[in-house]
Amino acid sequence: MPAGVGVAAFVRAYGAFPLPRDLNFLWTVGAMLVALLALMLLSGLTLALTYTPDASLAFSSVEALERRAPSGWLLRSLHMTGATFFMAALYLHVFRGLCYASYRAPRQGLWTIGTLLLVLVMVTAFAGYVLPWGQMSYWGADVASKAVGAIPLIGGTLEQVFLGGDAPGSATLHRMFVLHFTLAFTIVGMVVLHVAVLHAKGSTSPSYRPGSGGASGATLPDAAGRSRMLPFHPYFTVKDTLGVVVLAILFTLVMCFWPGLVSEVENYRPANPLHTPANIEPEWYFLPFYGMLQAVPSKFGGLLVSGGAVAILFLVPWLDRGTAATCAAGRWGGLRWLPCVALAVLACSFVLCGLAGRHHVQGGWMLVGRLATLGYYLYFLAFLPFYARLAQKELRS
Ligand code: HEM
């Protein structure tokens, strides 16, 4: 078969892919993520043309790009603003998955690939933040290396491997540059797999939300015998394009009029190992995990709790054993409102952990940080198993 025919057949198959017609705007976030990923790759590859991963040259190579290369400031702004928007969109995408239980059978594999993507994106973002070699880059790498060093038995070795020496320096920068570059392409491969699995398993829909009383019916014909599904093209290509255009407008507004939102003043000072900044804190998207890290008195305990907050996402499909049938089931013991309250507690806990992290979990923020960490874990370890069991009991009775 000629290649052109194969491509045409592939595009036709994807264009005809049936999707539930009640998909809301949260289902456009996936397309936004794809658009942002393309932007990050293109701007990142261009930035890499002038970047020098050496402790004595990294900061000035970025400065030279910003001040002297044509449109260099624009390239860097696109990449920095892109990182913030990518992480915000990613958190919204995961939250959508939790809201609508998109992780349930048969999509456990899709969810697992998604969580793996989340980990890869987080590591890539961390490695990227070290590259400009400003004060926050240096001290961020220092804090992270000490956290890794707190792991019993292997911590010391891991710290050495991470730093390439006793303190952050050129060897660390080389490692972070290679990691940042390699993971970016790994993420592209994983996204292709993610979308391919989605096409094999099909989408969930808003009427599948636990407690909604709707459920699996989204894919069946309605009472009048009409299909509830619509082809991807033109219905969802138009919707996704609109989502990406709105995102582009927001993106441009933030990049041009509110650059302080996506950058840290302290990181415009070159790394200085002899001067510790008064406020060492990570980028906003890591603050909730930083808050959890600090809310626990022991270093290793904090590492377990904050790492566990991401790792627990891998277990979600097995913590919530609900099915489409239990989703539609009856009265939920009169607790139909519970999923909404539980999700609100989860979202508030995540934000409060971030705020506590921002305040270095000191004074009253210690209590807030601990309660919020508890709230976060309760959603996964108490609410999800309990609610699914309640629904299953009702279905049997
Ligand atoms: C680089 C990061 C990611 C990209 C580019 C991406 C892209 C996409 C796209 C394009 C879709 C289809 C449109 C939509 O439903 O919004 C999708 C669906 C989905 N994604 Fe992601 N995703 C990413 C990360 C994640 C993560 C971190 C998770 C979960 C931990 C996840 C879980 C899901 C699930 C469960 C669906 C299916 C939703 C449904 O049932 O309709 N994804 N993703």
From TrEMBL:
CDD domains: Cytochrome_b_N
Keyword tags: Electron transport, Heme, Iron, Membrane, Metal-binding, Respiratory chain, Transmembrane, Transmembrane helix, Transport
Subcellular location: Membrane
Coiled coil: none
InterPro entries: Cyt_b/b6_C (IPR005798), Cyt_b/b6_C_sf (IPR036150), Cyt_b/b6_N (IPR005797), Cytb/b6-like_sf (IPR027387), Cytochrome_b_N_euk/bac (IPR048259), Di-haem_cyt_TM (IPR016174)
Pfam families, alphabetized: Cytochrom_B_C, Cytochrome_B
Cytochrome b/b6 C-terminal region profile domain ranges (all copies): 222-397
Residue ranges of the TM segments: 25-52, 73-94, 109-131, 177-200, 242-261, 300-319, 340-361, 367-388
Keyword presence, Heme: yes
Domain Cytochrome b/b6 N-terminal region profile: start-end pairs: 1-207
Keyword Nucleus: no
Co-factor(s): heme b
Top-level taxonomic group: Bacteria
PROSITE patterns: CYTB_CTER, CYTB_NTER
Topology of this chain in the membrane: Multi-pass membrane protein
Primary subcellular site in the record, as a coarse category: membrane
Cofactor binding note: Binds 2 heme groups non-covalently.
Subunit structure: The main subunits of complex b-c1 are: cytochrome b, cytochrome c1 and the Rieske protein.
Family: Belongs to the cytochrome b family.
PANTHER family the record matches: CYTOCHROME B (PTHR19271:SF16)
Biological role stated in the UniProt entry: Component of the ubiquinol-cytochrome c reductase complex (complex III or cytochrome b-c1 complex), which is a respiratory chain that generates an electrochemical potential coupled to ATP synthesis.
Name of this protein: Cytochrome b
Organism the protein comes from: Acetobacter farinalis
